[in-house]
Amino acid sequence: MFYFYALSRIMLILSHCICLRTRFAVATGKLLGGFRKWYYNLCGFNKFGLMRDDTILEDSDVKEALRRLPESQYNDRMFRVKRALDLSMKQQILPKDQWTKYEEDIRYLTPYLEEVIRERNEREEWMKK
After folding, report:
1. Angle value at C-alpha 48, between 31 and 64, nearest 5 degrees
2. Are 48 and 90 within 8 A, CB to CB?
3. Digit-coded pLDDT (tens) for 60-116
4. pTM here?
5. What is the dihedral of CA 12, 15, 19, 20, to 10 degrees?
6. Are 106 and 69 in contact (CB under 8 A)?
7. Distance (Å, rounded) from C-alpha 28 to C-alpha 26?
8. Could you give the C-alpha distances from 123 to 58, 119, 127, 129, in angstroms and in order?
9. 43, 99 in Cβ contact below 8 A?
10. Which contacts (CB < 8 Å, 24+ apart) does range 93-101 have?
11. Contact (Cβ atoms closer than 8 angstroms) between residue 113 and residue 56
12. Cα dist. 120→52, 60, 68, 112 in Å?
């Protein structure tokens, strides 16, 4: 009888701990999401209408990834970059309703860039053999 009681108490305590852990994970996720949005707005590129992938420094891998972009995405990127340069020269920013929002910012270049880097690493490994 005592064994059953002790086991049921342990199960109750464990279920309570799991419930608290789940609540903590949800709260932590919301906190991190809020921090990400705050930091995204702090960076300032969104005030010029740029997306995160528009700000990647262009090296040989990025240039190859840009070459592989579909033409419409490439043209959209060039429009955003030219508009940002123009606004920067005028020392202005876009109206707040035209800023790029955190939720709308997609990583359009990242899949192409990852593929280029993977291919380069594979080519380097092949050359070593």
Report:
1. 90
2. no
3. 999 999 999 999 999 999 999 999 999 999 999 999 999 999 999 999 999 999 999
4. 0.72
5. 70
6. no
7. 5
8. 21, 6, 6, 10
9. no
10. 93/47, 93/48, 94/47, 94/48, 94/49, 98/49, 99/46, 99/47, 99/49, 100/45, 100/46, 100/49, 100/50, 100/51, 101/46
11. yes
12. 23, 11, 15, 12
CA distance 64 to 61: 5
For residue 26, the one-letter residue type is: V
Whose structure tokens read 């995160």?
52
Give the Å distances, CA to CA, from 126 to 62, 119, 121. 22, 10, 9
User: Which amino acid is present at 76?
Assistant: D
Structure tokens at 20: 């608290």
Q: In 3D, which of 96, 104, 95 has the Cα closest to residue 76? A: 104
Q: Which two tokens stand for residue 16?
A: 């309570």
What sign for the dihedral angle of Cα 60, 43, 45, 86? Answer: negative
So what's the pLDDT on residue 2? 45
Q: Which amino acid appears at position 36 of this protein?
A: R
